[in-house]
């Protein structure tokens, strides 16, 4: 049986070339995680004091630990995507989630003082719960409970979320004490200048209907940064990686890869020793809640962009991609990383025409091949790869037209979903805003009978979650 027959190219109106381009596009858009996840997850010290919490290994330097976690990131992501490809046959990519890894390092390990082994044990427990709940159809059922306006708004919310992430990485949007967000000093920032040129080049290619426009834009932007660096127009390290001068020539400084990950594999088992059941349960609950709704939102939003949703706004056979997420999380915890989740960058491949698990297989293979050159795995600079996010964000804004803005019981939940998602940097929080507001508005308009019991329970669950997450009860319990 060939690839076309196995993945059903004809059924999904696609072909091998389209799927390969889509897979490469998704890989380039999310390759940054290979560098970012290890940096977020590892402890950093100075003068004998911990300045950033996370995983620290006795007898291993910080650089060696980062390299181990790069290997772990690639393995966990690759395994999860193989499940996505061959079991779910969907073009969704997975990797350790941003935000969830920060919660792991900064909140659980740092603020709460929980050993990193125990944090891994919590992630492992969450993964097992996901496997069980997915197997019995509970996760898919919960997603079907999302109110219609929330489902229709998720795609646009994710688009704005992608846009703000991409614009920040490109140096166009920056943090500001007075206005929270502000325009960067574009003319003084080589990253911003190259990013803007790359963005408009990519948009022009897409407008011309050029196949692989996003990939070509990313590569062209990265190449431009390299040329400007080697030509001496900008200082080494400004546009491309960490460079040093050797004989007047700029070359990239790359650490030696550390492939021995045995200090991390199975470390979660030690985390089950001497734990307080209540505090451990709260940590698992927090991991569980955020990952559940991040994944649900991504599947619905990217599914909407790819035309995968049925007439009720649900993703058919959602339990299959959800199982890939559950297995990825469990396997990732076993070998030493935080929660694996479905990536919103999957939308880049879908917009390039990717429709089957072949996309996930391509990304998985590229992740595994990156093991051969671990230090180069994140060679594409973030400002170049994140051009894809801004382009896709522009395309996903079209989803907003599906919302019935004339019906206030739809416009308010949908509007809150869209607004809260980018401004809190969380897909889950945007969904929460929509789900909690939906029954409130329905009651206010006298349509309480249109709210299902399950939707009331979802709203109540989110209220409990926000209390646990923001009241300090989690810190007090530990």
TrEMBL record:
InterPro entries, per database record? Azg-like, Azg-like_bact_archaea, NCS2
A GO cellular component annotated for this chain's UniProt record is: plasma membrane
Q: Which UniProt keywords apply?
A: Cell membrane, Membrane, Transmembrane, Transmembrane helix, Transport
GO MF terms listed in the record are: purine nucleobase transmembrane transporter activity
Does the UniProt entry include the keyword DNA-binding? Answer: no
tRNA-binding among the record's keywords? no
**Residues that span the membrane, as ranges:** 20-40, 68-87, 93-112, 119-138, 158-183, 190-207, 213-234, 277-302, 322-344, 356-377, 383-402, 414-436, 456-477
Predominant localisation class = membrane
Pfam families annotated for this entry? Xan_ur_permease (PF00860)
Q: Indicate how the chain sits in the lipid bilayer.
A: Multi-pass membrane protein
Localization per Swiss-Prot or TrEMBL: Cell membrane
Protein family per UniProt = Belongs to the nucleobase:cation symporter-2 (NCS2) (TC 2.A.40) family. Azg-like subfamily.
Show the PANTHER family listed in the entry: XANTHINE/URACIL PERMEASE C887.17-RELATED, XANTHINE_URACIL PERMEASE C887.17-RELATED
Q: What is this protein called?
A: AGZA family xanthine/uracil permease-like MFS transporter
Task: Look up and give the organism this protein is from.
Answer: Halobacterium salinarum (Halobacterium halobium)
């Amino acid at each position: 049986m060939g690839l076309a027959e196995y993945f059903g190219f004809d059924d999904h109106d696609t072909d091998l070339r389209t799927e390969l381009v889509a897979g490469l596009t998704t890989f380039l858009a999310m390759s940054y995680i290979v560098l970012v996840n290890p940096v977020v997850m590892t402890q950093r010290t100075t003068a004998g004091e911990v300045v950033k919490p996370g995983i620290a290994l006795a007898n291993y330097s910080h650089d060696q630990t980062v390299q181990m976690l790069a290997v772990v990131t690639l393995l966990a992501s690759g395994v999860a995507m193989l499940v996505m490809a061959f079991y779910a046959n969907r073009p969704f990519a997975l990797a350790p989630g941003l935000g969830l890894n920060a919660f792991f390092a900064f909140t659980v390990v740092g603020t709460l003082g929980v050993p990193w082994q125990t944090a891994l044990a919590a992630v492992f427990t969450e993964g097992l719960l996901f496997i069980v709940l997915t197997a019995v159809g509970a996760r898919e059922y919960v997603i079907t409970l999302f109110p219609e306006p929330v489902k229709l708004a998720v795609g646009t919310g994710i688009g704005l979320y992608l846009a703000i992430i991409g614009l920040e990485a490109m140096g166009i949007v920056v943090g500001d004490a007075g206005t929270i967000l502000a325009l960067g000093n574009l003319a003084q920032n080589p990253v911003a200048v190259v990013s803007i040129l790359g963005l408009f080049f990519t948009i022009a290619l897409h407008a011309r209907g050029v196949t692989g426009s996003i990939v070509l834009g990313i590569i062209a932007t990265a190449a431009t940064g390299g040329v400007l660096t080697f030509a001496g127009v900008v200082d080494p390290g400004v546009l491309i990686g960490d460079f040093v001068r050797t004989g007047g020539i700029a070359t990239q400084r790359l650490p030696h890869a550390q492939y021995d990950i045995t200090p991390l594999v199975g470390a979660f088992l030690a985390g089950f020793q001497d734990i307080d059941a209540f505090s451990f349960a709260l940590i698992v609950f927090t991991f569980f809640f955020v990952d559940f709704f991040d994944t649900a939102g991504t599947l619905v939003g990217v599914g909407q962009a790819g035309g995968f949703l049925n007439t009720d706004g649900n993703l058919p056979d959602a339990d299959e991609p959800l199982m890939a997420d559950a297995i990825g999380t469990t396997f990732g915890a076993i070998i030493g990383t935080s929660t694996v989740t479905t990536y919103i960058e999957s939308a880049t491949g879908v917009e390039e025409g990717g429709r089957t698990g072949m996309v996930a297989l391509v990304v998985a293979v590229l992740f595994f091949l990156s093991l051969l050159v671990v230090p180069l795995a994140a060679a594409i600079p973030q400002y170049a790869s994140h051009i894809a996010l801004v382009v896709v964000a522009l395309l996903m804004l079209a989803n907003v037209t599906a919302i019935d803005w004339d019906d206030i019981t739809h416009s308010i939940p949908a509007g809150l979903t869209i607004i809260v998602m980018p401004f809190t940097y969380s897909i889950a929080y945007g969904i929460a805003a929509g789900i909690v507001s939906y029954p409130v508005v329905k009651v206010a308009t006298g349509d309480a009978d249109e709210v299902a019991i399950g939707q009331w329970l979802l709203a109540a669950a989110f209220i409990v979650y926000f209390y646990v997450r923001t009241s300090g009860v989690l810190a007090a319990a530990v």
